[in-house]
Amino acid sequence: MWDISNNSGSIRGLQFEAYVLHLFRKGDCSFTIRHLKGRGKARRRKKQEEFTISKEPKVEHIRVPENISTCANNNILIIPNKPNFGAADFIMTPANIFQATVAKNHPI
Q1: pLDDT per residue as tens digits for the range 44-93
Q2: Where are the beta strands (DSSP E) in 1-108?
Q3: Do 81 and 62 form a contact (C-beta atoms < 8 A)?
Q4: What is the C-alpha separation between 43 and 36, in angstroms, rounded?
Q5: Which pLDDT belongs to residue 1?
Q6: Is the pLDDT of residue 3 over 60?
Q7: How far apart are CA 27 and CA 55, in angstroms?
Q8: Of 108, 97, 101, 105, which Cα lies nearest the Cα of 13?
Q9: On the CB side of 10, how many CA atoms lie within 13 Å of its CA?
Q10: Which of 27, 96, 97, 98 could form a Cys-Cys staple with 53, CB 3.0–4.6 A?
Q11: CA–CA separation, 17 vs 51, rounded Å?
């Protein structure tokens, strides 16, 4: 049994990330996503949009960011083998990087 009294946010985040990853692997679903804040004008807008995942997308695992380029086809779900992989939890080719979080603000 976990004692979540001190780390409830961390545990909630890990559970949420695992659930989102499950949904991505299963596919055939849509999400409302928002873009992380950037610099300048991008910081002032919080654009939301629908993102749809095809049914059971192909999955590739990588250890280092340089391996992303080996996944050149579209609709490949790239899952890092390392839990502390840079600033991304998973990637959907050709150009979508995802950070699953329960935090209201998530610094990159």
Answers
A1: 556 788 999 999 999 999 988 888 888 878 889 999 988 777 768 899 99
A2: 29-34, 48-53, 58-62, 76-80, 90-92, 96-98
A3: yes
A4: 8
A5: 44
A6: no
A7: 4
A8: 101
A9: 6
A10: 27
A11: 17
pTM given for the model:
0.73
What's the rounded Cα separation, in Å, for the pair 99 and 25? 15
From 6, 15, 42, 22, select the one nearest 90 (Cα to Cα): 22
Distance, CA of 64 to CA of 86 (rounded, Å): 9
DSSP label at 36?
P
Per-residue pLDDT tens digits for 5-37: 555 668 888 899 899 999 999 999 998 887 766
